Amino acid sequence: TSLIVGIFDRATGRLLGGSGLHACRGDAINWSIPAMMIGYWLAKEHEGKGYVAEAVGLLTHVAFDDLGAKRLEIRCDADNARSAAVMVRWAAARRCGNARRSRDRSRGRP
Fold first, then answer.
1. 71 vs 109: CA distance, rounded Å
2. pTM attached to this predicted model
3. Dist. CA 88–CA 42, nearest whole Å
4. Contact call for residues 110 and 104 (beta carbons, < 8 A)
5. Closest to 2 measured CA to CA, from 34, 36, 52
6. Is the pLDDT of residue 96 over 80?
7. Rounded CA gap, 110 and 107, in Å?
8. What pLDDT is stored for residue 15 in this prediction?
9. Mind giving me the DSSP string for the chain?
10. 44: exposed, middle or buried (C-beta count within 10 Å: 0-12, 13-18, 19+)?
11. d(CA 109, CA 97)
12. Which residues are paired to 18 by β-bridges?
């Protein structure tokens, strides 16, 4: 089971790549946890323009806020520096967001 989305140029509607939420292991998302993995690809000529980072951000919100994910992973080819950079930025943003939420909860805020 996967949720597949296209990455399109807003101005032209041209397909630039794709992304989605996938099972971390096996063929189906484990809904008892629930755990998911973000995957993505982009045509080479569109790399470095923020398209994948935007898609990953949107899918992160869908996974956690709409689908109730408890665990979310990104895997990438370690030899693909741009892909690895997206993953590193995403992980850093998640850690900061989790720390901020924890601090807010300890102060009695939602």
1. 23
2. 0.76
3. 18
4. yes
5. 36
6. no
7. 9
8. 97
9. --EEEEEE-TTT--EEEEEEEE-SSSSS-BTTTTEEEEEEEE-GGGTTSSHHHHHHHHHHHIIIIIS--SEEEE---TT-HHHHHHHHHHHHHHHHHHHHHHHHHHTT--
10. exposed
11. 14
12. 6, 41
- Judge whether 38 and 60 are in contact, CB under 8 Å: yes
Of residues 57, 58, 68, the one with CA closest to residue 30? 68
Tell me the two tokens of residue 103: 């601090």
- pLDDT digits 0-9 by tens, 47-85: 999 999 999 999 999 998 999 988 888 877 778 888 888
Q: Are 33 and 23 in contact (CB under 8 A)?
A: no
Nearest alpha carbon to residue 21 among 5, 45, 32: 5
46, 53 contact by CB (below 8 A): no
- Tokens at 5, concatenated: 């989305």
